[in-house]
Design brief:
alpha+beta; 2 domains; 5-stranded antiparallel β-sheet; single chain
């Protein structure tokens, strides 16, 4: 991948700073601060070039990579809104120990810069097999992003490794993109071959959960925001909301909740590929993969992942990976089962709350069932979906599970 850039120099006292910018403005890239979360809107060209700049940050530990975006035109339905503002983005290596308070002065001293073209590896050079997700739990781990806001700029500070590992998400958005300034959500590709990432939802760079917000609060906050983002054009056609529960990297300590929905149009379209009408309607394999949010995802929701670990620890259920596999059945197995039960119960309680408070009805235009499920269906799925909804709301779904 060839990426045109400009290189700028600015001196503060005895220190000289090197700043890298894209040569062409990222006119279809917008970063919006919503107080508790930060969303970015991209078209295909912007996503591809940002992925290159992300990789450039990994290989330029002595430079500040500046992405000017705050002057770009934002999506009309997002702005203006109380508490929102558009931001620039700066990527930098943690070894720089750069103080964001110095940025405004440096930015004011930047000239036109020197043009240059750099050659970067494509997305195929990122080897997911070598990414140690378990290391995220280590206190001494430095391969994590840290965010700071100053002078209308978001500073993403991390190691070379974390920049390399996460650049691929922008490549995913670029490859799947079809129209400019659509909201995109990017997450790690699912292991199941049917779980195809669809370019729907929004890409959240970070969710700044206040220190006092519990995991339950965080869960409700993201789910309500996701439901509020349902397009008006789809709302009238929705017959069910999906609460998909999964364990990231097959780790019981990392349960996630993916929010989506299905429409009558999609169900009719899927009948030809399903065994019958009921399977087309209720089997998630035939649903639209519109991941509105993935709560607890290590990459797209790091604040939720942190809050989840704290929640599990406070329940007395957190465990370290055993060195002796013989300990799994006697020690780890029961703890993992309790984590699963508590997480499922929490999701069911949230669904009932969303019904009671009218969130479902406001988002869809009427009350529809919330299906709390996995990728497989069995009796427990039927029972927890019944628990998640008012009496009778799951009566079409549960017989299909029990008699299928």
């Amino acid at each position: 991948m060839k990426l045109p850039i400009t290189i700028h120099q600015a001196r503060l006292g005895s220190t000289e700073f090197k700043v890298i910018r894209p040569a062409r403005p990222l006119v279809h890239a917008v970063l919006i601060d919503h107080d508790r979360h930060l969303d970015t809107y991209l078209d295909q060209d912007a996503a591809q070039r940002i992925s290159g700049l992300w990789k450039l940050a990994a290989s330029s530990p002595r430079s500040l990579v500046h992405l000017p975006m705050r002057g770009n035109r934002g999506p009309s339905r997002e702005l203006p809104e109380d508490g929102t503002r558009q931001l620039d983005l700066v990527l930098l290596h943690h070894s720089l120990q750069f103080a964001p308070s110095r940025w405004k002065e440096i930015r004011g001293r930047l000239g036109p810069g020197r043009p240059q073209t750099v050659t970067l590896p494509g997305p195929g050079h990122t080897d997911e097999a070598v990414i140690d997700h378990e290391a995220r739990h280590y206190q001494e781990n430095r391969d994590l992003f840290h965010q700071h806001l100053h002078a209308e700029t978001l500073f993403m500070t991390g190691s070379a490794k974390v920049f390399r590992d996460t650049a691929r998400h922008f490549f995913d958005v670029a490859l799947l993109h079809r129209a400019p300034l659509q909201r995109r959500h990017s997450r790690r590709r699912a292991r199941d071959p049917h779980r195809v990432l669809r370019p729907v939802g929004l890409m959240t760079l970070t969710d700044r959960t206040p220190p006092t917000m519990t995991f339950n609060d965080h869960l409700r906050h993201l789910v309500e925001r996701a439901l509020a983002s349902i397009p008006a054009a789809d709302a009238g056609d929705i017959y069910a909301v999906s609460f998909l529960i999964d364990n990231e990297d097959d780790d019981p300590r990392q349960p996630t909740l993916t929010i989506g929905y299905n429409t009558e149009t999609q169900a009719r379209r899927s009948i030809q590929d399903a065994s019958d009408q009921a399977e087309a309607r209720w089997n998630y394999a035939f649903w639209i993969r519109n991941e509105l949010t993935v709560v607890g995802d290590l990459t797209s929701d790091p604040a939720g992942a942190t809050a989840r670990q704290k929640w599990i620890t406070e329940l007395g259920l957190w465990y370290d990976e055993p060195t002796d596999l013989a300990n799994w059945d006697s020690v780890i197995g029961p703890l993992a089962a309790q984590i699963e039960a508590r997480f499922n119960q929490t999701c069911c309680q949230l669904a009932r709350t969303l019904h009671t408070t009218g969130v479902i009805e406001r988002s869809v235009g009427r009350t529809v069932p919330v299906i709390v499920h996995e990728l497989e269906y069995y009796e427990a799925i039927a029972r927890q979906t019944e628990a998640a909804n008012p009496p009778g709301f799951a009566d079409e779904f549960t017989p299909w599970v029990r008699n299928g």
